[in-house]
Structure formats: C-alpha cells, structure tokens
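User:
I study polymers; will you set down one protein's sequence and backbone structure tokens?

Assistant:
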Amino acid sequence: MAYPARLLGEGEHIEYETRPHWRVLLLPLVAFLLTVGIASYLIGKIHGDGGGQTFLRWALFLLAMSAISYWVIRPIIFWATTLYVFTNRRIITRTGLVARKGRDMPLSRVNDVSFSHSIIERIFNCGSLVVESAGERGQLHIENVPNVENLQREIYRWHEEDDNRRRREFDGPSAGPDRPGAVPGEGDGERNALPSDGT
C-alpha cells in the first residue's frame, strides 16, 4: 500500500517509503505456532463424543481463535497498514485500516534527529527514530524503522536541501543593475574587472 501521489503537494516527491521492520511479525508467528500447537494438543486429549466433550472442544477452539485474532491477526494488520513516508518537504506517518491515524512534520521545523536501537535491533538493522520539532507537538517517535542509522543521516540531508530550496524561493532572482536600489555595476564582475594587461 504505497502513499498516494495525489496527496503530495506541488513540487513534492517521495524520497523514502517503508513499513515497520519485518521483525515485528516474529512474535505473531511464534504466537500462532504456540496457539495452534497447544489448542490441538488439548483438543486431542478430549476423548469421547458426548455433549460435554463437544462443548469443551468448541470452547477450546473459540479460545484459540480469540488468541490468534488478538496476538496474530491484529499485529499483522497494524504492520500492513502502517506507513512511514519521507518526502523532500515533510515526514509522514500513517496507520490504521478503518480508523486512520497520522501525523505530518515539515522538514523546515526539524531541529534534531536521533536514533536508538537495542542489541537485538542492531542484529536486525532497525531501531527507533526520534525527530525533534520546533512546533507545539514536540517530538515524533517512529518505532521499528529499517536502516534507522542511515535514515537519520538522510533526514539531515533532506532538511538541508529543503532549507536551501526555501532560501532560494525567499531571495528570489539575483540582484541585477536594473533592480531598484541596486548599486550601478554591482554584480557585473566582467565589466568592472581590470584589463588583463594591467592598464
């Protein structure tokens, strides 16, 4: 599920787009195997075809399905519907399938970018990213980010490029001799340069 291009601003393009690191799916996988294994074992231990045994089998089955829904299906849906998008103008986070949540942080307001990762996260090459903002909402925490150390450096680069772009837009065209208030001859290096022979 890529971020829709129609939601980007004029002149804005995506630099990097990712979901949370795939390691977040390891626990749901383990939970699925354990739940299925334990439920199958317990159901197999129930002998007989009476009403009580049938009710107990269905109760164990429904209990196992509830556990799978909470510990397996829910985290997978969260992973599949969570998106981290980094454009040349802002940082975007989106999560949720029906009830959506999101946050945008303009690169122009980024003050500091830091990352952290545990030993396990270093093995999987992922970590947490914390972006400090000059806005009212302060920090943006992004968990389980792939290649977090490289991404931190890239954010600084995109921030610098965004600053340069906004500075050019603010300054406008270079001063010329016909602009009001310009000093005659200013900016005309060739016309005011000394002759090559020194005379």
Observations:
- The longest strand covers residues 126-133.
- The chain has five helices and seven strands.
- Residues 175-199 have pLDDT under 50 and may be disordered.
- The helical segments are 26-45, 51-80, 119-124, 148-171, 189-192.
